[in-house]
Amino acid sequence: MADDDPAVSVCFIVKIDDFSLGAFNSCEGLGCEVVMEQREEGGNNGYVWQLPSRIKYSNIKLTRPVTKDTEKVTRWIAGMVSGVTRKTGQISAMTADGRVVARWSLMDVVPVRWQGPSLSPENAKVATETLEIAHHGFLDSGRG
């Protein structure tokens, strides 16, 4: 398999600073958007300038079946009770055989929401959890 083969069976390993939260099988919202401002040019009614103003980063939602690593997530969130401390995060996309396909380092990560499993004896499906995190942008992978 070549190094530039696309990721097929991917899981996402998540670390906060050097603390691993384990593997997640779904990662949504990893991205950014350049916010554009429109400025009409005086005296030229047929032209509107499109000016980039800032970059907006979306929240990231990570989902997986409940495992022993769920305790790590709740421990991290419980540590925020005495005050929110922004951390460096890292998400690594891995193939089924454990190779890193891509890695994203995130600055100023904080947990926004955690949704635990809905447990019911009438509903026999896999119990899942979802962690939503916010961040202030990407870091150079060599620094994260």
TrEMBL record:
InterPro entries: CHP02241, Phage_T4_Gp19. Pfam families: Phage_T4_gp19 (PF06841). GO terms for molecular function: structural molecule activity. This is Phage tail-like protein. It comes from Kitasatospora atroaurantiaca.
